[in-house]
Amino acid sequence: MGMMTYRKSRFDEHGFTGLEAAIVLIAFVVVAAVFSFVVLGAGSFTTQTAQATVHTGVAQASSSLEVVGNVMGISASPNAPGARLTCINTSVALTAGGTAMDLAQMVISYADNNGGRNAAVANNTLGITDCTTINVFADQTDENQRWCVSQKINDRNPSAPNNLLEHDEIWILSIGMPDSATVNTKITVNFQPATGAVLPVSRTIPGGLNVVQALY
Questions:
Q1: Minimal CA–CA distance to 130: which of 108, 104, 110?
Q2: Fold of the domain spanning 65-215
């Protein structure tokens, strides 16, 4: 009788030992699964953050604006003593993949190698003014430089004008030149959008002027 009790007790202990091992194993599996989920979630979040950072960096480092065609120089009095440019016409459009751009928030600056400087050529504080309101063809100085929109090609909103340069549109910007924009002068006009890199445009005024000429 004692022998039978001893064997039953031994078998019961083995059963409990196996059950305990199974519980411990299940606990390890659950912990491992939770840990893996946390690690994968953290990795996914890190990847998404890194992608967002890269996209933001690319957007800030690249310009969404480009010059289309030639930059044209206009001189109101090309044969007068001390002849100079009166204004330039620059056609701009969005680059491939660029998003619509509010040009009312764009800053245009000017500099030349004769000492002419203007950190922000004025337009209109309430929005972009077209060239029927601002006369850029009159002689200007650094202090009263102005720019305006002389034409919108492929305008998407002809009945409701706005400040957005959109896909397939080309806007011709007329930018007044100061009295330092004389012959053989290198001029630089910087277009700084609200988002993205600055677009610098440098040209040299030729030694002889016509009323209209391409600048290179």
A1: 104
A2: Immunoglobulin-like (2.60.40)
**Which of 201, 69, 96 lies closest to 147, judged by CA?**
201
- What is the distance of C-alpha 166 from the center of its chain? 14
User: pLDDT tens digits for 97-137?
Assistant: 888 999 988 999 999 999 999 998 887 544 566 676 666 55
**Residue 204: how many other CB atoms lie within 10 Å:** 14
- Is 110 in contact with 180 (CB distance < 8 Å)? no
Q: Which residue has the tokens 């050529």?
A: 121
Indicate if the pLDDT at residue 194 is higher than 70.
yes
Q: What is the DSSP string of 124-137?
A: -TTS--BTTTS-TT
**Domain map (residue ranges) of the chain:** 1-61, 65-215
